[in-house]
Fold:
Amino acid sequence: MKHSPMISAARLALAGVAALALAAGCKKAPAPAAEKPAAGPAAAPAAKAPAAAPAAAPAAAADAAVKAPENDPLKNGWSLPPRGTAAKEGDRAYVLTQGKDRSYGSTTAVYHLFAHDVGEVKGDVITVKELGGGSFKITGLFLIPAGTENASDLKAGDMVLAEWASSLKHATVTKVDGDKITVRYTDLPDSWGEDKIVAVKTAREVTKQKEGLQPGSFAIAMDEGKAREVLLVSESGDKWLVRRFEGRVAAYPAKDLKALPLKPALKAGQTVLVPWVGMMYKGKVKKVTGTRVEVLVEGIATKDPIVTSLGQVATEVPKDDAAAAPAAAEPKKGKGK
Structure:
């Protein structure tokens, strides 16, 4: 079929336009290169990467919070001067602490006595090894030296301090066999089985008690006209740092303290002072079985005998001492240990 020159010309013109459009399209193909400016801003942050460092600041702040400055071991809330210790590096000792807090500024916190290994001893500053690793520094005010040089230094019947789950407890020695010392705890519940109140210990876990005001022993503290049972921790000048029944720590003048005898001679019907929820009450001995003592006390919120142990019974009872009488304000539940 023949085409007219006019149509052919039109087709050629259209073809030319298409060719130009195609050519123009080919020239625009490198358009991605025109996006290079966009790559500039993207690269800019990389160049300023150091500016991102502040993002690590919170982590650093957290570390700083965890690694707080060490507390001054020579300062305490009771304003007592520091003191050294008879304990040596490698010895065992009971250390007064409040949970994970290793400071001693609070006079109202609850403190516990747990056994630790002693590290470096330098004057009044003692390094104590943590049970799970690490260490902290204290003064001898908050430490009771523990352990016995040789198991042979002990014999059946001795009153001792003995570790129980790393805490300080009181016990009596029932047997010594070579380097093995069998003890029976005196301040654990009577309802517990023999497997819990009888244990075999090593010499470094057992500390022989002595009569008088001694670390780890019990005493009576006259507190605002009332007789309170306390556990002696350390002597500081004319005062003693003590731990009370509820775990609070206080400082009492030595003149206000009366040591509780370790092995008083007791008999049924005898008038004594015994502890009940931290205070001392007047009562009459009902029965003595080994180291356990049952005492009937009138005027308190229990008709059952108070069951306690030797080392916590006072035989010297003031005749006209109001502190030895039951106090209506005292808690109405619980038994003395």
